[in-house]
Amino acid sequence: MEGYCYTTECLRNYILKYFGEDPKKPCDDCGNCLRQFETLDMTDEAKKIINCIYESCGRYGKNIIMDTVLGAKTARLTEIGATEYKSYGVLESSNKNLLRRLIEELLLEGYIATGEYQVLKLGDISRLKNTETKVLVKITDEDKMSKRKEKPKKNKKGMDSLTSAGFKLFDKLKELRLEIARAEKIPPYIVFNDKTLIDMCAKMPTTKSDMLNVSGVGENKYGKYGERFIAVIKEYVK
């Protein structure tokens, strides 16, 4: 589904190929076929992104990698030592939207891959050793928009927002969630989804009122599971 969202080829053909068919020509009627794309050669930027992923040892997701090459000044980058990378700030004048499209293209072409928690890892980069190989990215006018023109996103919580301590607590909360899910024979996300666990790690609630302020926790969920998660958080804080 993620590939479908980011592909620039014929959307109908993308679906047909997924189900094993071999369409010979585009449909000329889907959103991509009717859209005009501009093709950019982003080979140099691609190599710098790949170098950053190599320096990070495949431990971080898209946002950390983009912030690193853009030279963002955040506490998280300082904590993990990314500000000391050779790749820190090498693309500081680049457009973040274009870098996001570039990363999706690198994923589609197999130069990089995603691991657990959606961290970025190196894929098969052997083709890039050939100087004739180019990384071409098709973009739209929307991709050219600067970050200042984007609609602000409020309360965005993701794995990249967590400190090292937050990651440790997240693992403990996942263990409790899995224990409950197995006992009740339900999928873990029915207990609490990852977004809720991440918000718990950020806010570290130790009272009922604190827990009800966590995204995805209401009176019903609190009544079922709230006290057990608070107990784990209290023990961790202690």
Describe the structure concisely:
By secondary structure, the chain is mainly alpha-helical. It is 47% helix and 6% strand. The protein has a two-stranded antiparallel ribbon with strand order 1-4. A two-stranded antiparallel sheet has the order 2-3.
Task: Please give the share of residues in helix.
Answer: 40-55%
Query: Largest sheet, if any?
Result: 2 strands, antiparallel
Could you say what the CATH architecture of the largest domain is? Orthogonal Bundle
Q: Do you know the CATH topology of the largest domain?
A: Arc Repressor Mutant, subunit A
Overall tally of domains:
2
- Gyration radius (Cα, Å) is 21 Å
Stretches where pLDDT is under 50 for at least 5 consecutive residues are 147-156
List the helices and strands in order: HHEHHHHEEEHHHHH
Strand content range: 5-15%
Mean pLDDT reading: 86
- Cα shape: globular
Number of strands: 4
Order of neighbouring strands in the sheet with most strands: 1-4
Question: Which structural class fits the helix and strand makeup?
Answer: mainly alpha
